[in-house]
Amino acid sequence: MKKRGWEIPEREATSEDVYLNRRRFMKAAGATGIGAVGLLAGCGSEAIFTPAEGPEPIPEPTGGGTQEPSGSTTETNTPTTTTPTTPTPGPLYPAKVNPEFKTLDRPLTKESVAASYNNFYEFSTGKTQVKALAEKLTTEPWQVVVKGEVQKEVTYDFDDLVRKMPLEERLYRLRCVEAWSMAIPWTGFPMKALLDEVQPLSSAKFVKMTTFMRPEEAPGQFKNTHWPWPYVEGLTIEEAANELTFLATGTYGRAMPNQHGAVIRLVVPWKYGFKSIKSIVEIEFVSEQPKTFWNTLVPREYGFFANVNPNVDHPRWSQATEKFITTDAGNPERRPTLLFNGYEKYVADLYPQKPR
Ligand code: MTE
Questions:
Q1: Could you give the 3-state DSSP secondary structure of residue 224?
Q2: Comparing 20 with 75, which gets the higher pLDDT?
Q3: What are the angstrom distances between the C-alpha of 356 and each of 63, 166, 303, 313?
Q4: 246 alpha carbon – ligand 1 mean position (Å)
Q5: Residue 21: half-sphere exposure toward Cβ, Cα within 13 Å
Q6: Rounded Cα distance, 184 and 173, in Å
Q7: Distance from C-alpha of 136 to C-alpha of 250, rounded to nearest angstrom
Q8: Is the Cβ atom of 276 under 6 angstroms away from ligand 1?
């Protein structure tokens, strides 16, 4: 893969090879309704939030803490599967920092705090319980199916995909619709790099992304059978091609921990956090706007676009300010919410009418 000028190592390589070797070993070895709202702890719980109270009070944290595309060269719309090949040697993490996204207007959230205060409803509605429960998620092997209105339908083995893509680190603000926020260093690759690989057809107007469906591993899916699983999110094709749109495979200089959405998740920092779907197993290019998880469950509260906007309140609380979590989830800083979460210069052109 061609090196770019800014690809200068900023950190010492860690023991990532150990992780990768383990993944290779494992691969070889194994080769709705509105009535549900009251149950939710986060993105919309009337049981937790009331208009008078505002968003959920933040509890104390519990934790301390090129290879050639094998099989992807067929010409038109023929499903293929990547076969195990010898991956490009060398550690993946930490990746070089992209200088465009090297600094933020605020400090990074402490890693142990970000890693123990998570929204991942497949496991729990309790943010501090997700980390332990998500340990059950099997992440090896992992495949990502790319299908639909594209030139090349491909089933990627994750280990091949991550070796093929141009990994970099970016510091992004994360703003949850519940009015808390963090600042997180993600490692991954621009979604545009994947689009360039699979070549969407002109009929592809939206990208639909889907999380795993494994009630046997994910207690939230097992218990809440009336929710519209699997979790689905979507973007317009223009949003997907935007330079900010990131498919993250790691965080804080390491491979993605399960609770943050291993092994691969979306990060769209100008949108409310629920758009940043975790643990993706399928990416489908479609001609119609897809039905998404939260929009299906509570359409009045969670729109398809969901761009961060201090001037448009959630029906049950203000979005004018946010609780920024740095070193202590129990003691956040209050900050003004930024239009498009501060990413207006990158995305305002996508919404010529007005922010949605
Ligand atoms: N993706 C899936 N599959 N399931 C989820 O419950 N929660 C979303 C988003 N992605 C969610 C998801 C919400 S509401 C937020 S705020 C972010 O993940 C939180 O990401 P983090 O836990 O890594 O900070």
A1: coil
A2: 20
A3: 36, 31, 8, 12
A4: 15
A5: 5
A6: 6
A7: 18
A8: yes
Residues in CB range of 57: below 8 A, 6 or more apart: none
State whether residue 189 is helix, strand or coil.
strand
Cα 260 to ligand 1 centre (Å): 7
Quick check: bond before 94 cis, omega within 30? yes
Which pair of structure tokens corresponds to residue 163?
């070796």
CA distance 50 to 58: 15
Pocket test for ligand 1, best of 37, 45, 119, 277 (most atoms within 8 A of CB): 119
| Span 98-156, pLDDT tens digits | 999 999 999 999 999 999 999 999 999 999 999 999 999 999 999 999 999 999 999 99
Buried-state track 250-278, b at ≥16 Cβ within 10 A, e below 16: bbbbbbbbbbbbbbbbbbbbbbbbbbbbb
Which of 26-30, 253-257, 347-351 comes out lowest in average pLDDT? 26-30
